[in-house]
Design goal:
The chain is of the alpha+beta class. The chain has one domain. It has 2 helices and 5 strands. It has a 3-stranded antiparallel sheet with strand order 2-3-5, with no helix packed on it. Strands 1-4 form a two-stranded antiparallel ribbon. The chain is elongated and about 75 Å long.
């Protein structure tokens, strides 16, 4: 589940280039940058320029992409811990609310 969340964070990421030279090292991924693309082929007229992650894989003219798997693993751990913590907190809140509701003699929860 954390790998899927990490991938969706990559696809939704944006890179802001402040000069044409920065386009050669566009880095994506959150919270750690684990994909780098060479976008220097694009000649933007104005800077800064925000560029979304480009997942296009054209056979005739592919975008040079580097994947840093160790940073991907770190991202998965960070995202996994965050998702797990969120589920644990949510579960605790639900149990706390259920325990606070009055119960009848059979032990079932009564709604007010």
């Amino acid at each position: 589940m954390s790998a899927l969340a990490t991938f969706f964070l990559l696809v939704g990421d944006r890179f802001t280039a402040h000069s044409p030279g920065e386009l050669a090292h566009a880095s994506y991924g959150w919270p750690l940058d684990w994909v780098t693309q060479d976008l220097s082929r694009y000649a933007y007229a104005e800077f800064p320029q925000t560029v979304p992650f480009n997942f296009t894989r054209a056979w005739d003219d592919p975008i040079a992409t580097s994947v840093h798997w160790q940073w991907f693993a770190g991202d998965m751990l960070i995202v996994g811990f965050a998702v797990t913590a969120a589920f644990l907190v949510l579960g605790r809140m639900i149990r706390h609310r259920r325990a606070a509701k009055p119960q009848d003699s059979n032990g079932s929860i009564q709604d007010k």
